[in-house]
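Page 37, continued from 36.
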């Protein structure tokens, strides 16, 4: 997703710099001739972008778009903290809401913008992104229903990314979190496309049990909005994305740390802090941990 945004921002005329974690990423940038390849409907565009190791940034950053997985947001912010000035806009592009809440608490909700997107993208190779499906993108700040900074909006690829402002981005992120908690882990457990959760009887039974617990937790937790029939919302998302592999299953297959600690894990954290039962979500997380262990063992045998 970070590559898609970088490409769109560059096409929009923004002067952007990719902030990379280390030498390995910098080498891959050089191997790609300093270009992002954006693939859409089989057509390739090559877009030159500058890159730098995050820790080496010296100038204050005007706009910082963080496109890491949600569990890496804090480390990403720490790596450029010295370059975050009072005027820096921080834009977060993650699933879940834990990282967004934390960053808003640390930096102030006024300067932390949250994006929620249904754009689809995946990496064919380092810095080669396939734009797999256009969708909408919502932008807002937690707890602030006012209009957004017009300079920020002008600097973003509003038309190309279908960006719209949402005065209740917090509610949107919570609702998306509920859907991700219901869907993502199960696609790993059943190793299936999203749509199969509707047709596989056992998976569907588990989906219904998860939805029931998530809906009950949202009704009981003070910070969450009430969900209006989670099962039918999940049904609609699974039908619309039936052929897709969830982001969590893609991470799992690549042996990457999944975002589930920020999804079901965060919901369980909140539940426990209020003495609420979240046993269905906990059991799902334990099964995922066991699968990760088996996956790692297989890889070390290979
Ligand atoms: O957001 C998603 C994800 O894959 O993370 C869903 C809703 C499951 C669509 O694939």
């Amino acid at each position: 997703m970070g590559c898609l945004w970088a490409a769109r921002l560059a096409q929009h005329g923004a002067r952007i710099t990719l902030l990379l974690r280390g030498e390995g990423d910098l080498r891959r940038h050089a191997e790609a001739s300093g270009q992002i390849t954006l693939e859409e409907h089989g057509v390739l565009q090559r877009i030159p972008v500058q890159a730098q190791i995050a820790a080496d940034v010296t100038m204050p950053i005007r706009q910082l778009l963080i496109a890491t997985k949600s569990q890496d947001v804090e480390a990403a912010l720490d790596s450029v903290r010295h370059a975050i000035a009072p005027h820096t806009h921080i834009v977060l592009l993650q699933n879940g809401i834990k990282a967004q809440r934390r960053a808003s608490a640390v930096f102030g909700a006024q300067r932390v913008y949250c994006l929620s997107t249904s754009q689809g993208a995946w990496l064919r190779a380092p810095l080669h992104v396939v734009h797999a499906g256009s969708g909408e993108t919502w932008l807002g700040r937690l707890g602030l229903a006012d209009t957004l900074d017009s300079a920020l909006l002008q600097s973003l690829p509003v038309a190309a990314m279908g960006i719209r402002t949402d005065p209740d981005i917090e509610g949107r992120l919570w609702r998306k979190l509920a859907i991700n908690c219901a869907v993502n882990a199960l696609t790993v457990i059943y190793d299936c496309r999203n749509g199969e959760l509707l047709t596989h009887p056992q998976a569907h039974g588990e989906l219904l049990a998860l939805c029931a617990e998530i809906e009950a937790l949202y009704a009981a937790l003070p910070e969450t909005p009430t969900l209006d029939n989670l099962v039918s919302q999940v049904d609609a998302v699974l039908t619309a994305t039936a052929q897709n592999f969830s982001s969590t299953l893609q991470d799992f297959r690549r042996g990457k740390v999944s975002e589930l600690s920020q999804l079901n894990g965060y919901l369980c954290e909140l539940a426990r802090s209020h003495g609420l039962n979240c046993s269905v979500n906990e059991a799902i997380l334990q099964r995922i941990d066991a699968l990760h262990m088996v996956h790692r063992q297989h890889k070390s045998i290979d």
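Residues 95, 179-180, 183-184, 194, 237, 241, 244, 246-247 surround ketopantoate (CB under 6 Å). Flag for discussion at group meeting. The chain has two domains: 2-166, 172-301.
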